[in-house]
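Exercise 7. Predict the joint structure of the components listed below.
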Amino acid sequence: MFREKIKVFDCTIRDGGLINGHDFDERFVRAVYKALSEAGVDYMEIGYKNSKKLFSPKEFGKWKFCDDDVIEKVIEGIESNTKISIMVDVDRVDIDDVKPKKDSPVDMIRVASYVKDIDKAIFLVNHFADKGYETTVNIMAISRALDNELTEALHQLDEECKANVIYIVDSFGALYQETVEFLVKKFRSILKTKEIGMHAHNNQQLAFGNTIEAIIHDANYVDGTVYGLGRAAGNCPLELLIGFLKNPKFDIRPILDLISKEFVPLREKIEWGYIIPYAITGILDEHPKAAMALRKSDKKENYREFYESLVGDDLD
Amino acid sequence: MFREKIKVFDCTIRDGGLINGHDFDERFVRAVYKALSEAGVDYMEIGYKNSKKLFSPKEFGKWKFCDDDVIEKVIEGIESNTKISIMVDVDRVDIDDVKPKKDSPVDMIRVASYVKDIDKAIFLVNHFADKGYETTVNIMAISRALDNELTEALHQLDEECKANVIYIVDSFGALYQETVEFLVKKFRSILKTKEIGMHAHNNQQLAFGNTIEAIIHDANYVDGTVYGLGRAAGNCPLELLIGFLKNPKFDIRPILDLISKEFVPLREKIEWGYIIPYAITGILDEHPKAAMALRKSDKKENYREFYESLVGDDLD
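Solution:
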């Protein structure tokens, strides 16, 4: 038995782009799209839509901007039912860069927002929805959200926002499954007509387990990335999600091939996954940026010292 | 708040020994014992007690036999409240090799058994209990146990066996948390006076999540290994367990140091962890031996072909 409403959402290129300045070559992105299409994955998030007034295309790869013609080139000629998504961050997008849906290869736009920026997120989502896109709001860093502020934001989303899906985003990989259960039930109780999504990070090897937990309590949009690729500890491995879900439309084989041919070699060039400094920031509910800096330093394996540096602040 | 009854049980050397023929040098084992002692870990399982009539000490390292004098040498002079455990397999131990507890550094003996061998396990446990040891029965490959046979075995354990703890062992790393919940509740309902233990394998990155799930439903003995060391995909990472539990007696720092100094270099020499062929055997609820053989072959990264070889049998 399976729940047909469950949608598997791949964000390999988008979240993985946070490691390498969004600089995947077109051949690689096309290989990912082809494999996801063959595997029956519902959505592929291909990058961010950032304003070129704020970020220079000389400094970042093309998946930080996701021009429509670049997307069209990599998906051209591949038979697919996989929808294309892009992500926008509050305050970093120029809405005039986004054409009406009917003129674009993009199907969905996801707006990433902290709880405090929820009004801006709602404005963006409603704008994109009016242009014809499916939309979501992804509430970042939810492990740090104050409950009263989250409650208010969810009521606003329910009443004022055209998003189809509201996502729980465990940006720091800090959640344990009891809190996932609490949050999904809370979202479910307030959001009368919207689906709930789960985007987990893998600092404590809980991304997959927490995603299952969210599914158990009625989240229907679940994010994964191929081989767990993603910033720092990475994400819920898509191959495990496909292995778990019983919907016969999914086929794990193309993903296995893709990992063999593309992701095992890639892992030799860029680093992600279960690495102790990322586990430490997860345990301490901190952003991984200090751990990412450590991994680029000559103290990259000094775990105890790194831990002490994070817990050593004077109490006040 | 924490549950004081929870005991953290390290089996780094015992389960890790399945990778390298139990051939850790004494310096390394002593470093592990020292760090576990400083970290406040309750038990350390240091190896197996196998009969030297069945296995040759020329072919295997000393932690396959765990002579008392070898154990005494590595723990000597280290201040510690960490108890020492050894594991025995049904049909592989010579019970005359086991001295009375008062003459041995060993505190606990764990008997590993399939459901079908439960009568033999009960005999062994009662023998060791009569010699003065704490004892457990570890029910292996529980994802393959038929429910009626498991029910009968649990009733026997409740009525006839002197073991203090009965363990759920997910040998294949195949369980999802819904089944963990089912099993812990089942164990709890039948075993009136015994504690429940959880030993998870990490094929699908669920060892830690499933261990938390077992704790939620009242398992009080939880196994981990430093940096997840263990056969194939390895085990629940001890450092994550220590990071999760709130009992102030635990200190993660010595474990972090140990990983930096000993386990990061070790991982360069021997392989364990999240590797796709082990994920595949976990998804398919199979013993990892075929995947272990694959990893030693020149087809080690041929994931799709490996998957096909496991699912390709004719149905009957």
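Discussion. The domain at 7-269 of chain A is CATH 3.20.20.70 (TIM Barrel).
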